[in-house]
Amino acid sequence: MHDDFERCVRAVQAKDARFDGWFYTAVLTTKIYCRPSCPVVPPKPRNMSFYPSAAAAQQAGFRACKRCRPDASPGSPLWNERADLVARAMRLIADGVVDTEGVRGLAARLGYSVRQVERQVFAELGAGPLALARAQRAQTARTLIETTTLPMTELALAAGFGSIRTFNDTVREVFALSPTELRSRAKGTPQAAAGALVLRLPYRKPLCPDNLFGHLVATGVPGVEEWRDGAYRRTLRLPHGHGVVALRPEDGHIACRLTLADLRDLPAATSRCRRLLDLDADPVAVDDQLATDPLLAPLVAAAPGRRVPRTADGAEFAVRAVLGQQVSTAAARTHAARLVVAHGEPVDDPEGGLTHLFPSPEALASLDPETLAMPRSRRRTLLGLVSALADGLDLSAGSDWEAARAALGALPGFGPWTVESIAMRALGDPDAFLPTDLGIKYAAEILGLGGPAAVVARSAAWRPWRAYATQHLWATGDHPINRMPAA
């Protein structure tokens, strides 16, 4: 979008927050870059220049605006809508892969050469993977500076910087303030107790929290997830350790309280929380498309901004999807809770009732099928999945959606419902669709859509947002997944 100068100018002059994260406005006279909705008086068009990423603006010599904080805007929805190389790379960079594995590790995960990854990412984002990771480190540093009392030396290492000098230089270059000055300006910013971080996760309005939190809580696994004091809480398995997060919907943002065993995991934890709640979606684009169908239009008007509840761990969700085959939500939770107690890694949660991390594929590799209280055929399905995950089946943020679908479909006991459930919730495909799901069949009967074949034919007009259409169709039923949990 940044190449469409007139459209960008109109968005800036209207202070349209819907375009935050889509592009960044650089002001040639002040050498500052802003988000489109910056509250200051817009510059004259001749003094504007537009960039596709904060990293590109920083590389061009612009500093982040101190008023609108463009580095903290919602991410571009493109990276969660698309399945191409650049989108996959951006999801992995957000998950901290460049910091933990370098650009070579990023390229290896994507199955391309380093040169090809760098070339394609630069062509679309105006900056390479290293520059994008550097911009992310700067934002992580700012978060830690403003929300903790950590000494700067410890903070620099936690943010991913190799030296305190690089940390100081980067912060000054990006924010035009020293780390100490940033901390001084942040006085009054809410800070959590020792060991916890308090963040605000922005999103594009509108947001309907009902199905989002209702689904997560109704299907939550005891010991791994809970609803407490008006917040959804869960444990997280992260690159350097574990974490516990509490997420609460607020006006214009999600209040996020993170407790991390290793502060280096802040970028990955933040990325996974955003992905879990689908916070980088463009709800206006989705709702506009779905509302063109006269049967869906009233559902969209009644609950604009529905998101797709996703997952913080693709492998975890795949296991849970198998456990949920042909059983009730309560039975699926019971099966998952037994796995957690038997094979999960214990964690300490002094603030609530979380007790374990969900078992990793490696931990489940030693699973004795005779201990599973389920039909023999489903035991084979679960063991086949666990074996495939241990052998490298990729269901992570950067996975190839079609390759993952093909690999899942080749496993014993994996039909279209299970594959599409995983595509929707774990892979994040916005067009995943479950026409044979009981909830969809119920909605089709209520709305007069016809049988599965007729629903599939009609759903062509909903593409590429059929996963969002599914949320609206499910809402026609009276089920806890459609309701915001009671505080």
Write up this protein.
The chain has helices at 5-13, 54-59, 78-81, 85-94, 97-110, 114-125, 129-147, 152-158, 164-175, 179-185, 209-218, 266-276, 283-290, 297-302, 314-323, 329-343, 361-364, 376-390, 401-409, 416-427, 438-447, 452-459, 466-474; strands spanning 24-27, 32-34, 48-51, 63-64, 196-202, 225-228, 231-238, 241-250, 253-260, 345-346, 356-357. The strands form three sheets. A five-stranded antiparallel sheet has the order 5-9-8-7-6. The protein has a four-stranded mixed sheet with strand order 3-1-2-4. It has a two-stranded antiparallel sheet with strand order 10-11. The protein has 487 residues and is of the alpha+beta class. Helix 4 runs antiparallel to helix 5 (97-110), helix 15 runs antiparallel to helix 18 (376-390) and helix 19 packs antiparallel against helix 20. The mean pLDDT is 92. Helix content is 47%, strand content 11%. The chain is globular, with a radius of gyration of 22 Å.
Features:
five-stranded antiparallel sheet, four-stranded mixed sheet, 487 residues
Label the structural class.
alpha+beta
pLDDT averaged over residues: 92
Low-confidence stretches: none
Strand content: 5-15%
Radius of gyration based on Cα positions: 22 Å
Main sheet record: 5 strands, antiparallel
Q: Describe the global form.
A: globular
- Assembly status: single chain
Number of strands: 11
Q: Span between N and C termini?
A: 41 Å
Count of alpha and pi helical runs: 23
User: Main sheet: which strands, in order across?
Assistant: 5-9-8-7-6
Helical residue percent? 40-55%
